[in-house]
Every structure is written in C-alpha cells, then in structure tokens.
C-alpha cells in the first residue's frame, strides 16, 4: 500500500510517499481501509519531534482516519467487516491503518467518511474543554484562540450553542469564516493589542473561559484576560511554543484557574468524562449543531505540502488526505 513515512525530525520536508506492507489487525484491533485521514497540528509537532511521547523516525505518519473495517482481530466484539468507523491509530496517512477496537466510534449515519473526521479529536477536545473543564454556560464570555482552525471552529459552534458570547482570534484573512460561524467578535492577535482589546470588549472584567491552543507569548496574555478568581484558561496546545507562569504570579498578579487538557490522557484517566462528552456530541449531531464536517481534502501525495501549510498557520478548518 502507499503511505507517508516521516524519515527525520525535519518537518514536512522529510516526509516521503513510499510503498509499505498492509498492517495486520492484532488482538482487540480492527483493520480499516482509510477513506480519509485527518491532518492535525499534532502531526506537525510529531514531524518536528516536539510531541511528547511521539514516534521516532522513520515512522508511518498520521494518526486520525475514518474508513471501512476490512478485518477484525481476535477478541473484538461490536465491530464487523463493512462497518464505517472513525478513530485513531498510528500510520493513518496510508491506504490501511490498524486501530484499537475500543477506541473507534461509528461514522454517524448518512455521513461520508471524510465528514466524520474531527469527531473524536477536534469536537471532543473542544466540548470537554469548554463544558466539562471550563464549565462554560449561557451568558458567559469565551475567548477561542485559532478560531478558524480545526478545533477552533468546533469550539465556536459549541460555545454559541450553549449561549456564550464568543471572542475569536485568527489571522485577518480568516475573520469572515469565524464570523460566519457565529463569533461575536474576532481579533487578529498577531497585530492587535490582545489584552487591551479583550478587556475593552468585556468592560474590564475579562473572559470566563479561554481556550488556549497558541502558547508562547499568547499564553501569558490569555492568563491576563481571564476573569479574576473565576476565569479559567484551558490549555490544549502549544503551537507557538512553551511558556510558563509562576506560583507567585498565580497567587498575587493573576489569581485565575489554569487547567491543562490532553484528550488521550482524558480518555485514559477520566473515561467516564469521555463517555459523557461523546454522548453529548451525539446530541449535538442530532440537533444539527454539529453538522457533517467539510474538510478540505487533498490527495495523500500532497501530505507534505498540507503539513507545511498547517505549520505556517495558513490553513482554514479541518484538513484531510485521501489515499
Ligand atoms: N489537547 C488536545 O487533546 C488537543 C487535541 C486536538 C488539538 N489540540 C491542539 O489544538 C490546536 C489546534 O489544532 P488543529 O489541529 O485544529 O490546528 P488548526 O487550529 O487548524 O491550525 C493551527 C492554527 O493555529 C494558529 N496559530 C497560532 N499560532 C501559531 C503558530 N505559532 N504556528 C502555527 N499556527 C499557529 C493558526 O491560525 P491563525 O493564524 O488564524 O491564528 C493556525 O492555522 C493545536 O495547538 C493542537 O495541538 C489539542
């Protein structure tokens, strides 16, 4: 089969399309013919060696895919050949990928494979962060960073559905997309004075929740604009690099709640919460708040180009590769 191999930690420039053997489903696993693979910022980080616990090169890249089950390993119940599933498994940028049967979910009825991409990663991360960890409720204000991105777009829709006022951040060329999703305000944090602008928009109170995926200098600004005492900064990403805040600052200067969230860890250590989040996502699909995804789909061979653009911050929304 064809697959994209990451040959070194030099990013997209060290990713090549190669011929490799089709993997075999082991105990508790399913073999999936990839209909479409999701491209995530974590793929960029893995290709740079900055993703904690990520694979060492050379490795078959990609980890999110939706497709048809073509073989079922021993000990698997609940899935059969012909089912369409969405989930994660190492080496998803290929024609076939193996996934743990416990971790996959059904592609929603009537949806094509590519339309289900993001269900487990983008939407579950956004929903768990905003509602379960951030306790965002009607009448509150949320700051969603990278609001035009894969996770960001889901977060904007979710926050509006639960009655929050949404301030999004995005590069200027993406503002219209964010507004169309329902965001009340959009800020270009690369050029605007983010802190002054958010405080102005909230009459000096700050926001109730920040979905913080940018990191670097922006992380400190996110802490500054969180409402004192009750405001929550949910840290889900470090696209712009690591940053820190001291216990002294949290005590005296910025008494706010900083909460980390990593979906894989949440699934492992808080499976009940994950089950609740997935059940709620089912409801959001039913009521149309979560419509079929509309990723920009590229040929598998274009993977290196797509990853380079994602790394450069020039992409909009969910991205997919079709083998
Ligand atoms: N914790 C978790 O479990 C979890 C799960 C999924 C994703 N994530 C994180 O959520 C974030 C979004 O992921 P995604 O896959 O949906 O990507 P994405 O948001 O579609 O793409 C990243 C976007 O972030 C913005 N950005 C800001 N600073 C950047 C920088 N230094 N380099 C590149 N982009 C930058 C860019 O948009 P603008 O130019 O418009 O700002 C860019 O388009 C990532 O940080 C990812 O690691 C975390």
TrEMBL record:
CDD domains in alphabetical order: QOR1
Pfam families referenced in this protein's UniProt entry, alphabetically: ADH_N (PF08240), ADH_zinc_N (PF00107)
Chain ranges passing through the membrane: none
MF GO annotations: oxidoreductase activity
SMART domains: PKS_ER (SM00829)
Signal peptide stretch: none
Coiled coil residues, start to end: none
SUPFAM superfamilies: GroES-like, NAD(P)-binding Rossmann-fold domains
Domain Enoyl reductase (ER) positions: 10-321
PANTHER family documented for this protein: QUINONE OXIDOREDUCTASE-LIKE PROTEIN 2, SHORT-CHAIN DEHYDROGENASE/REDUCTASE
Designated name of the protein: NADPH:quinone reductase-like Zn-dependent oxidoreductase
Native organism: Kribbella kalugense
């Amino acid at each position: 089969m064809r697959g994209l191999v990451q040959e070194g930690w030099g990013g997209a420039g060290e990713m090549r399309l190669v011929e490799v053997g089709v993997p075999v489903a082991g105990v508790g696993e399913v073999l999936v013919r990839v209909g479409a693979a999701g491209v995530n910022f974590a793929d960029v980080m893995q290709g740079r060696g900055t993703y904690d616990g990520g694979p060492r090169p050379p490795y078959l890249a990609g980890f999110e895919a939706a497709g048809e089950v073509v073989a079922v390993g021993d000990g698997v119940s609940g899935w059969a050949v012909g089912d369409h599933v969405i989930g994660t498994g190492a080496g998803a940028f290929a024609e076939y990928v193996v996934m743990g049967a416990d971790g996959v979910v059904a592609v929603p009825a009537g949806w094509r494979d590519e339309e289900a991409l993001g269900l487990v990663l983008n939407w579950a991360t956004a929903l768990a962060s905003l509602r379960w960890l951030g306790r965002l409720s009607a009448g509150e204000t949320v700051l969603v960073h990278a609001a035009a991105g894969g996770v960001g777009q889901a977060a904007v829709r979710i926050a509006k559905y639960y009655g929050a006022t949404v301030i999004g951040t995005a590069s200027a060329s993406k503002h219209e997309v964010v507004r169309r999703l329902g965001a009340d305000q959009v800020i270009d944090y690369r050029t605007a004075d983010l802190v002054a602008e958010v405080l102005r928009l909230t009459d000096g109170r700050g926001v109730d929740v920040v979905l913080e995926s940018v990191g670097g200098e922006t992380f400190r600004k996110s802490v500054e604009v969180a409402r004192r005492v009750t405001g929550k900064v949910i840290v889900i990403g470090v696209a712009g690099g690591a940053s820190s805040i001291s216990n002294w600052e949290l005590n005296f200067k910025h008494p706010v709640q900083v909460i980390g969230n990593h979906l894989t860890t949440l699934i492992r250590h808080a499976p009940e919460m994950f089950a609740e989040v997935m059940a709620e996502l089912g409801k959001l699909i039913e009521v149309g708040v979560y419509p079929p995804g509309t990723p920009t789909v590229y040929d598998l061979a274009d993977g290196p180009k797509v990853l380079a653009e994602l790394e450069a911050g020039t992409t909009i929304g969910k991205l997919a590769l079709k083998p």
